[in-house]
Design brief:
By secondary structure, this protein is an alpha+beta fold. It has two domains: 2-136 and 242-371, no CATH class; 142-231, no CATH class. It has helices at residues 2-35, 38-41, 47-55, 58-83, 87-92, 97-135, 142-145, 250-263, 279-290, 295-303, 316-336, 345-371; strands spanning 150-152, 158-165, 172-180, 186-199, 202-215, 220-231, 267-269, 272-274. The longest helix has 39 residues, at 97-135.
C-alpha cells in the first residue's frame, strides 16, 4: 500500500515536471529562435544553419529552467494534495512524515542526476555542435543581404555599397567595395554595374566598367577594367566561430583548472587555449555545471516544508507564501552565487559547500518538526 501511494505521488510530480519543462522550454525556445533570425538577415547564413542552431539550443534552455520548474512542480503537487485532503491518505496509511520527505528526496536525487548529465555532457556537446554549423557555413544569402543605398558589412574585412538594384534583372548600379586585405593594405573597387554569379560553388560579383585602387602604407596604384570578378566566398561571417567556454567539453575545463592550479601551466587544444586570463571564467562555468544543480535537493526540501502545517491552521496561507518565496530566493541565490567566486580559497569553499549545508539544515529542521507532529 505504501509503495503504491509513493509511486502515485512520484508519478504526479514527474508528469507535472515533464509537462511544465516541455511547455515552458518550448515557449522560451520560440522566443529565442526569433532572435536567432539575425543569423539569416544580418550574418548571411542559410535557413538550414538557422534551424539547426535554434534546435540545438533547446538542451541549454531546458537545463536553465530545470531547478525552477522542479521546485514549482513539487510545491504545486504537495499544495494540491493538501487542498484536496489527499495528503491525509499518507498519514492514515501509517506513513511517517520523515518517510514522505525521504521519498521526495529520492525523486530529487534522480532529477539531480539528469541535470548533471545535461550540464556536464549534453549541453556543451549541443552548443559546440551548433557552433560547428556556423564554422562550416558559407555566406549563402548574399542576394538577400545586398540592398540599395545601404552599407553591407556582414562579413569580416569587407564593406559593400550598392547605389541601386534592379529587382527584375538583379543588376547592381554604382558599386563600391572595400576589401581590407591586412592592417597595412586595402583594396577599393568601384564599378558602374555588376551581377551576382556562381562558379565552382563560389559566389562572385561580376563587375563591369570600373577601377581597382590598391592602397598600402607606401603607395597607391589604380587599375582600370571593363570586366572583372570579385570572389565573395573567400570572406567569413562576423559570427563568433571559435567555441566559447560554455561550449567546451567538461574534460577540457577540468584539465585546464588542473594544469593551472596544480602545475601552473597552460592547457591547449585545437579549439581551446587555457590561459590565466580565462581561469575565472572556467571556474565559474564548472561551478555552474557541477555545484548549481545541487540546489535541486534544497528546493525540494523547502517545498516539503508544506507538510509541517495543515491547511486548517490559521496562518497556513501566509506560511505557504513564505515557503514559496524561500524557494524562489534560493533559486535566485543559486544563480547569482557564481558571481561571488574569487581567487580566495576559503570564499570559494564556502560557496561550493553552501548547497550541501542548506540541504543538511533544512532536512534537520524537517526531521525535528516531524517528531513533534502526529502523523
Amino acid at each position: 500500500m505504501k509503495k503504491l501511494i509513493f509511486r502515485r505521488f512520484s508519478l504526479d510530480i514527474t508528469n507535472f515536471f515533464l509537462l511544465a519543462i516541455l511547455s515552458t522550454g518550448l515557449i522560451v525556445w520560440i522566443i529565442q529562435a526569433v532572435n536567432y533570425l539575425d543569423f539569416v538577415s544580418e550574418d548571411g547564413h542559410s535557413l538550414k544553419v538557422y534551424f539547426m542552431y535554434s534546435i540545438l539550443s533547446l538542451p541549454k534552455i531546458i537545463g536553465k529552467l530545470t531547478i525552477f520548474v522542479f521546485f514549482i512542480s513539487v510545491f504545486f503537487i504537495i499544495a494540491k494534495y493538501e487542498d484536496k485532503n489527499e495528503i491525509i491518505v499518507f498519514w492514515t496509511s501509517g506513513i511517517k512524515k520523515i518517510d514522505f520527505i525521504n521519498n521526495l528526496f529520492k525523486v530529487s536525487i534522480l532529477i539531480l542526476f539528469f541535470q548533471l548529465l545535461f550540464n556536464l555532457f549534453l549541453i556543451p556537446k549541443s552548443q559546440d555542435l551548433a557552433r560547428s554549423f556556423l564554422r562550416n557555413s558559407e555566406i549563402d544569402f548574399f542576394p538577400s543581404l545586398i540592398k540599395s543605398k545601404k552599407f553591407i558589412d556582414t562579413v569580416s574585412d569587407l564593406t559593400l555599397f550598392i547605389d541601386n538594384k534592379d529587382n527584375n534583372s538583379g543588376e547592381f548600379k554604382n558599386i563600391y567595395i572595400q576589401d581590407n586585405l591586412n592592417k597595412k593594405k586595402t583594396q577599393i573597387v568601384l564599378a558602374k554595374s555588376g551581377l551576382l554569379g556562381k562558379k565552382n560553388d563560389n559566389i562572385y560579383l561580376i563587375l563591369y566598367s570600373g577601377k581597382i585602387l590598391n592602397i598600402d602604407s607606401k603607395k597607391t596604384s589604380i587599375v582600370n577594367f571593363k570586366k572583372t570578378e570579385f570572389n565573395l566566398s573567400k570572406f567569413s561571417t562576423k559570427s563568433i566561430l571559435f567555441p566559447k567556454i560554455q561550449e567546451q567539453k567538461t574534460t577540457n575545463l577540468l584539465q585546464c583548472l588542473n594544469s593551472y592550479y596544480k602545475y601552473n601551466k597552460t592547457y591547449n587544444t585545437k579549439l581551446f587555449r587555457c590561459e590565466e586570463k580565462i581561469i575565472d571564467s572556467v571556474s565559474k562555468e564548472m561551478y555552474r555545471r557541477l555545484i548549481t544543480p545541487i540546489y535541486i535537493l534544497v528546493v525540494a526540501l523547502i517545498a516539503s516544508l508544506l507538510i509541517i502545517k495543515s491547511k486548517n491552521d490559521f496562518n497556513y496561507s501566509k506560511y505557504k507564501l513564505i515557503t514559496f518565496l524561500a524557494g524562489i530566493s534560493l533559486i535566485i541565490f543559486s544563480e547569482i552565487s557564481i558571481e561571488f567566486l574569487s581567487k580566495n580559497f576559503l570564499n570559494n569553499l564556502i560557496l561550493i559547500i553552501s548547497p550541501l549545508i542548506f540541504t543538511f539544515v533544512i532536512y534537520f529542521i524537517l526531521k525535528s518538526k516531524s517528531k513533534f507532529i502526529n502523523s
